[in-house]
Amino acid sequence: MDAATVRAHVEAIERDGYTIVEDGIEPDLVDALAADLDRLERELGVEPAGNSFEGARTRRVYNLLAHGEVWQRVPVHPSVLPIVAGVLDPGCLVSSLSSIAILPGETAQPIHADDQLIPLPKPHPPTVCNSMWALTDFTEANGATRVIPASHTRDHSPDYGHPYDSVAAEMAKGSVLVWHGSLWHGGGANATGERRVGIAMNYCAGYIRQQENQQLGLAPALVRTFEPRLQELVGYGIYLGLIGHIDKRAPAELLGDATTASPMVWDLVG
Questions:
Q1: 138-187, pLDDT tens digit by residue?
Q2: What is the pTM of this model?
Q3: Which one of 125, 165, 190, 224 is most buried, by most CB atoms within 10 A?
Q4: How far is residue 128's CA from residue 205's CA, in Å, rounded to a whole number?
């Protein structure tokens, strides 16, 4: 993705709170993710959680980086990560990686903001930037994510469970919805006979605690196999030369693979 296209998507998020990257994911990767997700749902015996947020007819698999090599391609994808880095900054982190399969008959998820539990006055600079990868078409009828444009600029979060007017972020299979963490949104109702399947690839700023604990949820032996950028994204780097160090060393050095030491901000200022 060229710099001008990235900037256009970042500006759309700044203005509207969200953007859609049309056909951003190559078809073979979409199919591989869908096939592996089917495997995981079978092997893990995944069933709906039954609460109002996760849904009574929605299947979710969490911590996907721990479940197969194909998932390592998601956080670093060149059609998405540059946009997220433009909204947050290059020191952003993987917050969570999960699947959301909305089954026929599911009702709409309550409208919410993904940064709703972060105790900061609103509006504030983005602390969270999330994305939804469409492994099937997303339509008004099958439960496409519903958004309230420009709601990320409001001075409060939505009242959970209150009805709000919203629009469906319809997109074709292989496209990606990217949004500001303060955007008011929610999964739609599925009135069709088919599943609506998406991958929730969520990121946070480097100074924000990750939604899923990547350091405990991913075995060091597994992280050692990740490419360096993915190691940084799951928390094995140092943010701005300070946040996340261990005895003035980057966590990646403890994996035994780092080729150069990461300088601390104190060393750089002299």
A1: 999 999 999 999 999 999 999 999 999 999 999 999 999 999 999 999 99
A2: 0.96
A3: 190
A4: 6
